Amino acid sequence: MQRIRRALIDLRRGEPVHLADEAGGSLILALENLTEARLEQALGLATGAPSVLLTAHRAEALVLDGQTGEGIAVAVPKAGLMETARQLARGRDARPTGATVRPLTEGERQALGLARRATLLPALLAIASDPDHDRLAGEIQRGEILSIDRRDATRFFSDSGRHPERVSEARVPLSGAEQSRFVLYREADGLLEHVALVIGDPRQWPKTPALRMHSACLTGDLFGSLRCDCGEQLRSAVHAIAEEGGGILLYLAQEGRGIGLANKLRAYGLQDAGLDTVDADQLLGFGEDERRYEVAAAMLDDLGISRVRLMTNNPGKIAALEAAGIDIAGREAVHGALNRHNARYLTAKADRAGHWLEEVFADSAADGDQR
Description:
Layout: H1 2-12, E1 17-20, E2 26-30, H2 36-45, E3 50-55, H3 56-61, E4 71-75, H4 81-90, E5 101-103, H5 106-117, E6 123-128, H6 134-141, E7 146-149, H7 150-159, E8 165-171, E9 180-186, E10 193-199, E11 210-215, H8 218-222, H9 230-243, E12 247-252, H10 255-258, H11 261-272, H12 277-284, H13 294-302, E13 307-311, H14 315-323, E14 327-332, H15 343-353, H16 358-366
Parallel strand pairs: 1-7, 11-12, 11-13, 13-14
Antiparallel strand pairs: 1-2, 2-6, 3-4, 3-6, 4-5, 8-9, 9-10, 10-12
Helix pairs in contact: 5-7, 11-12
């Protein structure tokens, strides 16, 4: 786990990481923060053929041939490598001609998983390497470059989020819910922290308490952004739980449906250029919803909660908790208001992601607004 943690940090810092597999491995670098100096260093250490690793979502958005499974590797020439790689990673109309495209290896799939976990753009430069090469071997031996085994990455992802540690807790009175307690959980890799907001006295809760799983949204929750309904959902859920006699709200560090704040803002830019929220995320290399809920189930288990009434408009949350063994006794809608800034976003959630938002649009129509 410690080596994976360092790999995530190194990728975020723009450092190369060696990913070893049965074929020898590759030196991988995040394309989000690649510099000419880092590229020159990597090409001096790994003398093999470079490829750009892309997710299947990105490949489909660019209409690249050969995409299969979880992504593709596009062979790129060393001449003009920097610009070609950047275009493949971020360009809206990247169309490499004559490039060899192949499915990802298992190690390359894990490499893209690391980029996602580090909340980086899921696009990497991979340069085939021989770890016995004198210069690369020396850098690895001295600890200048980290080498990890792809099987360690596989184990990391299979356990990720399942065993969060309860770190600290305190009473935090809230407006409309004065009897509230914050319990902080930290995931095993140390990168993500989540909060369980326990509202009311659990000894006096309803027999089946209400649960809201709320994904962090800095722009909406803190600043009151009109591009989404997250802040309204958060505050209305806290008040509703308190009025019902208590329950729990899980505040999960899954900004932008799991893609991170930087990528969410990139997606906003693409939406301003005409894409809806699903297509914008896909062009960046993400699926329509990258969130996972194993950590939420683990937090509930730690708190001794196995049966809830779930406050959600998202059928995916119900399915995820039921798959984790949580008994969903019922569903309660939780809505924000429709406005001219979030109408396209909410429409995409309803039409393309299947969220239950009929009441929101019905209320808006009754008030004279148009969907």
